[in-house]
Design a protein that fits this description.
Structural class: alpha+beta
Largest sheet: 5 strands, parallel
Number of strands: 27
Length: 706
């Protein structure tokens, strides 16, 4: 254990609060969770903060389309977070929100400090304005004809056909994606942070290339990319950052500027500090042994601020964020650790093609969360590399490593120890191959965890497991046990291999504990050892692992093998899942089965479908139908009753008032619960992964889909 523990303030990227966690979030949280658990095992003090990124126009517009307030939307999303975090054994010390009093206070304070530092200025900006929605339009909400190649329906920043970058105002025949209206040009004052200021650039230059604890602050690829942005010239030169947006906008008001709000990317990273402040103010920090106040902790030179992020948000975390903190007089980050993306069998995620991984579906089909933790850890290193989830490799690695090499040690030895040695540890022999390997590798495994080289830590751990399993094969305890009761020599040899195996199993449990906390806790129960940490190797000899005569607990099976059928269920296609979950397809119970390759139709065929925007006026459960909800929908000229099989994904309270799409001219279907007079449209594989279709903001009940 280190004599002077490190004090670590750790964060992960804030998920946007307009939807559930995806597998990329879970991968990042698993990476950080492993690192945090390891740091605590070596005696360091860690405070790990998380929060929802709850502001911005997309959240405002999504809430409007559902007929609810933005506050109601982010509250609903936040309510679902614990089942993911707890399900995958991800243990944040605090989870908060950027839509909070703490974030408002800190954001406005940092803004004022930047103003006083002379790094904020106001400039008039011409933008497109939607006269129907009465709001300025971000690039994503404007489409039109590309001014370069004349491709239709291109977004307001880059043409997807010719890749030409341009301003939204360069589009030919532009239109608002929110209302369909032709936008007009209007000018508005915007607030900017002057990143191009020489003193600001000099600070960023020094920060990017500095060392922390004798090592580069950033990974080489990250540092190089950030330096490219910083040192660019001409069109590639670093530009000042626009940090304001005009009403209507869901965000934090800019003090002294009526109708102006902070752009989400200004207040979002401040959410790290807001979560930390909430953690201190709520008393959680003191309960975790931190005696200092929030301000004292954040200003303390011994506190290290560590961010885990994905490679898509490097710019904000290596340029804007450190500069904001520096010139606001706040502590700057010590390290920003960047990871890549996750793919499936080398392909980009796609639910429709069965190549997506839903974290919640993973849990719902009964897969062990620690299988995924182990597999992801085995793929992770300290570089900015994408990792790939390969189902066959997943099965082989989990079944071979965790079950065949690790758990099997205790499974094989526990019965012998109970039967022949009164469930006590026999004397440890000299020259144990497993123990020698554990003592030889423990320092390298510890270093690998600290450096986020989790794949290397696992490889070294499995080398220890291979050594003890090879030793077991030499001793052949299953043969020794046949006459051990009457053969003192064989009993002695059986005791030697049992002792060597169980001592090595204890070491392996320590090595795997940051990755497999629940499994390690079960193993600790059998080992009767108490919580394991790196003090286990403080003496540096085999006797410190398990002394002779130590009494074991009751052995219980620790983990099962992956069943390939579980992977089939995880990647089950939307069509197959819909067939299994649809209770009454004709009445619109959710995702509708369809042919793998649907027959072509004509425009006239499509015109026969009366698909309308509908408002869900009321929703209620149906007695005797576990999958159905009874919906009353307003389709403009009438109200209809629709029975929908979406109860596994939605509660009635989540639906009342929101807009969706309804097939209005579907033949009514009589059911024992009543008559269903239409079909609500949804997507997804079924179960909890059902997603009602919602129109963009501005749509009203009765509008027809064309």
């Amino acid at each position: 254990m280190t004599s002077r523990p490190r004090h670590l303030f750790v964060t992960t990227a804030l998920p946007y609060a307009n939807g559930p966690f995806h597998i990329g979030h879970i991968m990042e949280y698993i990476q950080a969770d492993i690192w945090v658990r390891f740091q605590r095992m070596v005696g360091n003090k860690v405070h790990w903060m998380g929060a929802d990124d709850a502001h911005g126009a997309p959240i405002m517009l999504k809430a409007e389309s559902e007929g609810i307030t933005p506050e109601q939307l982010v509250t609903r999303i936040a309510a679902d977070r614990p089942k993911y975090l707890e399900g995958f054994h991800i243990a944040f010390d605090n989870w908060h929100s950027t839509h909070s009093p703490e974030n408002t206070q800190l954001t406005q304070r940092i803004f004022r400090e930047l103003q006083e530092a002379g790094l904020v200025y106001v400039k008039a900006v011409e933008q497109f304005f939607d006269p129907v929605k009465n709001m300025f339009l971000a690039d994503r909400y404007v489409k039109g004809e590309c001014p370069n190649c004349h491709a239709k329906d291109q977004y307001g920043d880059t043409c997807e056909v010719c890749s030409k970058a341009y301003e939204p105002t360069d589009l030919i025949n532009p239109y608002s994606t929110l209302s369909g209206a032709t936008p007009v040009r209007r000018t508005s004052d915007h607030y900017f942070v002057k990143l191009s200021e020489p003193r600001c650039k000099q600070f960023m230059r020094e920060w990017l290339n500095a060392e922390q604890n004798g090592k580069p602050r950033l990974q080489p690829a990250v540092r190089n990319k950030a330096n490219e942005w910083l040192e660019g010239e001409g069109d590639q030169a670093l530009t000042d950052k626009d940090i304001s947006r005009d009403a209507p906008y869901f965000g934090i008001p800019i003090p002294g500027a009526t109708g102006k709000y902070f752009y989400v990317w200004f207040d979002a990273p401040i959410g790290y500090l807001a979560s930390l402040k909430n953690y201190f103010d709520s008393g959680k920090a003191r309960a975790n042994g931190e005696e200092r106040s929030f301000d004292e902790f954040l200003a303390a030179p011994d506190v290290e601020q560590i961010h885990f992020i994905g490679k898509d948000i490097i710019y904000f975390h290596t340029l804007l964020w450190p500069a904001m903190l520096k010139f606001a007089g706040e502590k700057v980050p010590d390290n920003v650790y960047v990871h890549g993306f996750i793919t499936v069998s080398g392909a980009k995620m796609s639910k429709s093609r069965g190549t997506g991984i839903s974290p919640l579906r993973y849990l719902d089909v009964g897969m062990n969360p620690e299988w995924l933790r182990y597999y992801i850890a085995a793929k992770l290193n300290a570089n900015v590399e994408d990792i790939d989830f390969n189902p066959e490799d997943f099965i082989a690695r989990v079944n071979s490593d965790l079950v065949g090499k690790y758990v099997n040690i205790a499974s094989r030895m526990a019965p012998f120890i109970a039967k022949f040695f009164d469930n006590r540890m026999p004397p440890l022999p000299a020259g144990s191959r497993g123990i020698s390997a554990a003592l030889e590798h423990q320092a390298a495994i510890r270093a690998a965890f600290d450096e986020r080289e989790f794949g290397k830590a696992i490889r070294l751990t499995m080398e220890v497991a291979d050594a003890v399993n090879a030793e077991i094969d030499v001793y052949k305890p299953w043969i020794l046990s046949k006459d051990a009761a009457n053969n003192p020599d064989n009993l002695k040899k059986l005791g030697e291999i049992c002792a060597s195996s169980m001592a090595t199993f204890k070491a392996l449990t320590l090595f795997l504990k940051p990755i497999l906390p629940a499994l390690a806790e079960q193993a600790e129960g059998y080992l009767n050892s108490g919580p394991l940490d790196w003090n286990l190797f403080e003496r540096g000899d085999a006797a410190s692992l398990l002394p002779a005569g130590h009494h074991f607990g009751t052995f219980k099976p620790l983990i099962t093998r992956v069943d390939p059928k579980q992977l089939d269920a995880l990647f089950e296609s939307a069509n197959e899942a819909a067939k299994k979950t649809a209770e009454a397809p004709a009445s619109g119970p959710g995702p509708t089965p369809q042919a793998a390759s649907a027959a072509e139709i004509t425009v006239d065929d499509f015109a026969k479908l009366d698909i309308r925007i509908a408002k869900i006026v009321a929703a209620e459960t149906v007695d005797g139908a576990d999958k159905l909800l009874k919906l009353t929908v307003d389709i403009g000229d009438a109200q209809r009753t629709v029975f929908a099989g979406i109860r596994s994904a939605y509660t009635p309270e989540q639906l009342a008032g929101r807009l969706t799409l309804v097939l209005a001219n579907l033949k009514p279907r009589k059911m024992k619960f009543g008559t269903s007079e239409g079909m609500v449209l949804a997507a997804g594989p079924g179960g909890k992964d059902i997603f009602l279709l919602s129109p963009d903001a501005g749509a009203t009940p009765g509008m027809k889909v064309k």
